[in-house]
Automatic annotation (TrEMBL):
It is a multi-pass membrane protein. It is found in: Membrane. Residues 394-405 have a biased composition (Basic and acidic residues). This is MFS transporter. The chain crosses the membrane at residues 12-30, 42-62, 74-91, 97-119, 131-152, 158-177, 270-291, 297-326, 338-358, 364-384. The lineage of its organism: Bacteria, Bacillati, Actinomycetota, Actinomycetes, Kitasatosporales.
Length: 413
C-alpha cells in the first residue's frame, strides 16, 4: 500500500498543478477575453461573478454525487471538462458561446476543487502526517506557470486559442493517465478498485462546521483583495509606476508557493493550531503594513507578508474539516461531504472580497479598506482551536490510522 499511496499522492499533486495552470490562464487573460467577445464593462462583472457562483453550485452537487460515486471518479472526469471549457473560451466568437463555456467551466471547477480536496484530506489521513499544504503548493506552482504563459501569449499578441491549445493538449492526456492512480482512502483504495460510494455518511452539521466556514470565507476575502486590488493600490495609492504595480501579485504568488512548500513541516513540528494562528497574525500584519505603507516598496513588503500568512489557512481548513467529520461521524464518506460543504465558502469569500474593498475604497479610502480584511483574517486566531484534534484522535500527535487500513472500508479515515 505504500507504493499505492505514493502514486496517489503524486497523481493528485499533478491534478492540483493542472488546475492551477488552467485557472490562471483564464483569470489573467480577462481583458483579452473581453475584447474578443466585445463584452461591455457593464456586463463583464456579471460574467465574472457567474463563474464562482456556478462553482459553488458545482460543489453542492458534488456533495450529493459523492454519496453514490467515488471522489476519484468525479475528479477524473471534471478535470478534462475544465480544460476543454478553457479551450472553448479561447476558441469561441459569440457572447452566447462565452456564457455557455464559462458556465461549464464554473460548474466543473466546483466539482474539481471539491473532489481534489476530498482526496487530499483522505490521503493525509492515510499518511498519518500533514501533506495537504504540499498539494496546494502544486496548485500555486501551476498558477505561477499559467500566469507566465498568459503573459507570454499577451506579449506575443497570440490569439487566445493559440495560447490555450498547447496547454490543453499537454495537460488533458497527462491528467487522464495520472487519474489511474488516484486513491480514495477508506472507500476503495485506488481509483479502479473496491466498491462504489454506497454507505456514505451524511457528514457533520453546518453548525459544527461554521467556524471553519468563516475561516475559509475570511481567507478568500484576503486572497481576492490581493489578486484584484494589489496593482491598483500600489499605483493609485502608493504612487508606483505601471510596471512596478504588476509586481505585488507575482510576489504574493511566489511567497504563497514557498509558504505552502514548507508549511507541512511546520504543521508536523508545531501542530496545525500554532501554524494557523501564526499564519493569521502574519497575514493581518501584512494588511496593516499595506494600509500604512508610505511608499510602493513598503507596500510590496506587506503583500509579501500576506502571501506567507494566508497560504496556510485554506489547506489547513480543508484538513480540519475532514478530521472533524471523522471525529463526529465515523461513517465512510463523511469527510468528503464535509469538504464539499466547506468548499462552497471558497467562492463566497471570493465573491465578497473584491466588491467589499472596492465599495469601501470609493466611500471611505483604500487604505482604510485594507483594514477590513485585516480584522477578518485576525478573527481566525479566535477559531484556531477548531484546527486541533481531540486528545484521543489522530491529528494531535496521538493515535494514527494504519496505512494498511486504506482501501478496506474500515476506519482508515
Amino acid at each position: 500500500m505504500t507504493d499505492v499511496l505514493r502514486r496517489g499522492r503524486a497523481s493528485l499533486a499533478f491534478g492540483f498543478f493542472a488546475q492551477g495552470v488552467a485557472f490562471a490562464l483564464l483569470v489573467t487573460r480577462i481583458p483579452a477575453i473581453q475584447d474578443r467577445y466585445g463584452v461591455s464593462d457593464a456586463l463583464l462583472p456579471v460574467f465574472l461573478a457567474a463563474v464562482p457562483i456556478l462553482a459553488g453550485v458545482g460543489s453542492v452537487v458534488s456533495e450529493r454525487l459523492v454519496r453514490r460515486v467515488r471522489p476519484s471518479r468525479l475528479l477524473r472526469w471534471s478535470q478534462p471538462v475544465v480544460l476543454l471549457a478553457l479551450l472553448g473560451v479561447g476558441a469561441g466568437d459569440r457572447v452566447a458561446v462565452l456564457a455557455v463555456t464559462l458556465a461549464v467551466f464554473g460548474l466543473a471547477v466546483g466539482a474539481l476543487d471539491a473532489s481534489m480536496n476530498m482526496l487530499g484530506v483522505s490521503l493525509q489521513r492515510a499518511y498519518g502526517r500533514s501533506i495537504m499544504l504540499g498539494f496546494h503548493a502544486a496548485y500555486s506552482l501551476g498558477g505561477i506557470l499559467g500566469a507566465s504563459l498568459a503573459w507570454a501569449g499577451a506579449h506575443g499578441d497570440l490569439a487566445l486559442w493559440v495560447s490555450y491549445l498547447p496547454v490543453v493538449v499537454l495537460l488533458l492526456p497527462a491528467a487522464l493517465v495520472g487519474s489511474r492512480w488516484y486513491v480514495d482512502g477508506e472507500r476503495g483504495g485506488a481509483e479502479g478498485e473496491g466498491t462504489g460510494g454506497g454507505g456514505v455518511g451524511g457528514g457533520v452539521g453546518f453548525k459544527v462546521l461554521l467556524p471553519l466556514c468563516l475561516v475559509m470565507t475570511f481567507a478568500y476575502i484576503g486572497d481576492s483583495t490581493v489578486s484584484n486590488w494589489s496593482a491598483k493600490y500600489l499605483q493609485g495609492v502608493l504612487g508606483s509606476s505601471e510596471q512596478l504595480a504588476t509586481v505585488p501579485y507575482n510576489v504574493y504568488m511566489v511567497t504563497t508557493l514557498v509558504g505552502r512548500a514548507v508549511g507541512d513541516f511546520g504543521v508536523r513540528r508545531l501542530g496545525a493550531v500554532a501554524v494557523v494562528r501564526g499564519g493569521a497574525v502574519v497575514a493581518a500584519g501584512g494588511f496593516a503594513v499595506v494600509a500604512s505603507a508610505p511608499g510602493a516598496w513598503v507596500g510590496m513588503l506587506g503583500f509579501t507578508l500576506l502571501g506567507l500568512g494566508l497560504c496556510v489557512l485554506v489547506p489547513q481548513t480543508f484538513a480540519a474539516a475532514g478530521r472533524l467529520a471523522a471525529e463526529e461521524d465515523g461513517r465512510p464518506g463523511a469527510s468528503d461531504v464535509a469538504v464539499a460543504r466547506l468548499n462552497v465558502f471558497n467562492y463566497v469569500g471570493f465573491l465578497i472580497g473584491s466588491p467589499l474593498v472596492g465599495a469601501l475604497g470609493d466611500a471611505w479610502s483604500y487604505r482604510g479598506a485594507m483594514l477590513v480584511p485585516m480584522v477578518l483574517v485576525l478573527v481566525t486566531v479566535v477559531y484556531a482551536r477548531s484546527f486541533g484534534a481531540r486528545p484521543d484522535r489522530y491529528g494531535g500527535g496521538h493515535e494514527r490510522p494504519r496505512t494498511a487500513d486504506v482501501g478496506r472500508g474500515s476506519n482508515g479515515l
